[in-house]
Amino acid sequence: MSQMIKLTIDGIEVTVPEGTTALNAAKKIGIKIPTLCYLEDVHAHGICRLCLVEMTGRPNLLASCILEVTEGMELKTNTPRIHRARRTNLELILANHVKDCLSCDRSVDCELLAFAEQMNVDAYRFEEKVENRVIDDSAFAIVRDSGKCILCRRCITACQSIQTVNTIGVQQRGAATVIAPAFDSLSDAVCVNCGQCAAVCPVNAIYEKNEIGEVEAALANPEKFVVVQTAPAIRAALGETQGLPAGTCVTNKMVTALKILGFDAIFDTNYTADLTIIEEGTELLTRLKSALVDKNTKAILPMMTSCSPGWVKFLEHFFPEFVENVSTAKSPQQMMGTILKTYYAQKKNIDPKNMIVVSIMPCSAKKYEARRPEMRSSGYQDVDYVLTTRELGKLIKKYSIDFDNLPDSEFDNPLGTSSGAADIFANSGGVMEAALRTVHEIVTGKELPGENLHIKDLMDIHGIREAKICFKDCKPEYTWLEGVTAITAATSGLGNARKLMDQVQDGNSPYHFIEIMACPGGCIGGGGQPRITNDEVRKKRFDAILKEDEGKKIRKSHENPYIEELYKEFLGEPNGQKAHELLHTHYTKRSEY
User: Looking at the structure, do residues 171 and 265 belong to the same domain, yes or no?
Assistant: First the structure.
């Protein structure tokens, strides 16, 4: 048990555990010290120098984010000397920015701009020293603007320590120091487009490639039928862009906002999350049968989920020998694009060349996924444009929509109805649980055991979790699974993915089925979600998604009546020829360099 430390901050006594920083000790008593570089439990280097405090007995001001408190310490956070130092440091940071910073788009989530307003800094006192500015928009998903970078290194921590991708780092030295890929171009680097760098950048120096203009142009074109789909995680985070508390579920207000923006049809990616479970679950059973019945030494296990495009590209680069272990089922986003430009277009007598499919996603990697050459099963690019949660939030504000007071609306059908299993795709472990709800019931005719259909501890925002499911009293056609225990694992964040893949590579993995999501916590912590996403925010979004699932009448993907209708009218059978042509794909072995 940690020893408790008693200290005084601004005359207020506070007791905190040993090892607590002055920044967090102050936070405990409601004193918010400004900082641009600090991220709780992730990144603390004392680089920006905005969090300076005075300590009795020490002549110099100290960075509170790296100052551990001691017994009897006396600190001040609010003196003229501190305010002068913070303001000067902020002005020096601004001097290393492009001159448009103080007049930039006020809808941009920029911590530097917020502190400039808070400290009443509205002009440059020091001469601008931005040299050799690089705006790298070579990648499909991410843009890097060196002219705004403050060298805080948050992005490096996200890319190297959390995601273990190592795309960006410190290049050059001294005054010439820049944060960049090795050859200055994201398109030439090994980047998985996860956007975690953009999610932590305090000054919008790294951001998703903006597609708002293209979407607006499509909406204004009377010859185009513009359809939108919304991912499961959006409903638990979009409200934050409009000033609502984290974890506020805004599903039906979101639909109303999209109607006001002018979309011709509004569908739920949850629908094709249910479809993904049918295809992926059937594929899992096929692989298990190959291993257990046919005794096929080439049976490709463990099978791995394919919903997270950042994870898939990570695997392609760093573990290319296992690309065939990834489920061939497309992600729900891409399945929806294909179904819209085939089944729905035929049903509504719409020429697919005149249809524009827009996705609202929590993930910048979805922008890359939509442009993969494999994703053209409809004969066209299946998904045309992808907006992140942040981009949709900006669009709602741009059109002066009073979001909080909107009436509720429902998704359109037949592609707007979904199960609770589809909702939990947003959470780490949710895809696995959704798949097992269906697979277990297909095999045994009985619901998956567990409290309220939840597998204990499988869904969480941390660590690597596992679940063991023993198949008992199987249906006659599945007697080959009788008594078999399927061992499954789920994790999020590519650092954890690497640990699991190292086990697989070394031959030490016990798992039959593995779910991996690229972003910490799953899609609820995606690189396109409202900033800043810390564990407190992740947990609130996570719980909101669980509540959505538990509030649904239909909790299992195979019970979605519109999925049954799709197979009957169009696809035939799960994993059948037509389903494979439209809903499945392959992946590419890539270089690690």
Answer: no
